[in-house]
Design brief:
globular, 30% helix, 17% strand, 291 residues, 9-stranded mixed β-sheet
Length: 291
């Protein structure tokens, strides 16, 4: 299957265009604005929802998607405040609200069951969606999602200064560099463009929302209550979250936890093939087939 079209179609609650690949804007309630959605793969295959992390977008999944569409209907969305979605100053960026929007997107696409994959802080949105919609989420996979704030690695570089927005190219590259295992990794320019396109408010509010959600309760505790099949993949050389913290997820009954040697915080970009192998093996057991 091909990657999603760069020019979005528009669709509403009652009509969605069918194609082998699609980008669209999904209208949500007026206080939320529009959510950018991409679909790839056969429509009659099991659904797999990919949720990006803070200061990222659907494009962070681009290298991985072609490896998943042979067996899955792959849905991606830009969370509110990110990518090609709306960036309102007066809407909530709280994790439960982001999860509610993700659930609304699946509802409007007519998807009743999905395996939900979250990268980094996208894993908190995936967890919240499972808390809210256990009927919708059949299983969860988390990529380099820290289980709690004590696992966070403070950056030694200067943070982006909200008073100097938009950030300079140098600030952007320093900010994004810890998302990869190797110093000097060539960061895809389109991902830097996604950060440039954010507002200062949508960036800081989104990052603050993740912190608040983790302060309220650690993810392993939440996921134990959720009771869904869980896969955790963690780059062994992650420079944002201590990879040793992945062991905390072993407290979740039945959880599968694996470290990926030689990879950092963004395994779906650094080694999409190895990441896809782990996801597809898990999905082959836990994905719900469409009747």
């Amino acid at each position: 299957m091909t990657a999603s079209d760069s020019a979005p179609d528009t669709y509403n609650d009652t009509e969605a265009k069918e194609s082998s690949a699609r980008s669209a804007r999904s209208p949500l309630p007026p206080d939320d604005g529009h959510i950018h959605v991409c679909q790839d793969g056969p429509r009659d295959a099991p659904a797999l929802l990919l949720i990006h992390g803070s200061a990222s977008s659907t494009r962070s999944w681009d290298p991985l998607v072609p490896l998943l569409t042979g067996s899955h209907r792959v849905i991606r969305l830009d969370l509110l405040g990110h990518g090609r979605s709306a960036k309102p100053a007066d809407s909530s960026y709280a994790i439960p609200d982001q999860a509610r929007r993700a659930g609304a997107v699946l509802d409007r696409l007519g998807i009743a069951h999905a395996l939900v994959v979250g990268h980094s802080s996208g894993g908190t949105v995936a967890t919240s969606l499972a808390e809210q919609r256990p009927d919708l989420v059949t299983s969860l996979a988390l990529l380099d999602t820290g289980p709690g704030l004590d696992a966070f690695i403070a950056s030694s570089s200067s943070p982006i200064d909200p008073s100097q927005w938009p950030p300079t190219d140098e600030q952007l590259r320093l900010f994004a560099s810890t998302a990869f295992s190797r110093v000097g990794y060539r960061i895809p320019e389109e991902l830097l463009d996604d950060v440039r396109a954010m507002t200062c408010h949508s960036l800081t509010a989104s990052m603050g929302a993740t912190r608040s959600y983790l302060e309220q309760q650690a993810l392993p505790d939440r996921l134990t209550v959720v009771g869904k099949p869980l896969l955790v993949l963690f780059g062994e050389d992650d420079r944002r979250w201590r990879s040793s913290s992945a062991s905390a997820y072993s407290a979740v009954p039945g959880a599968e936890v694996a470290l990926l040697p030689g990879l950092g915080h963004s395994p779906q970009l650094e080694d999409p093939s190895r990441t896809a192998t782990g996801l597809l093996g898990f999905a082959s057991v836990h994905a719900v087939r469409v009747d």
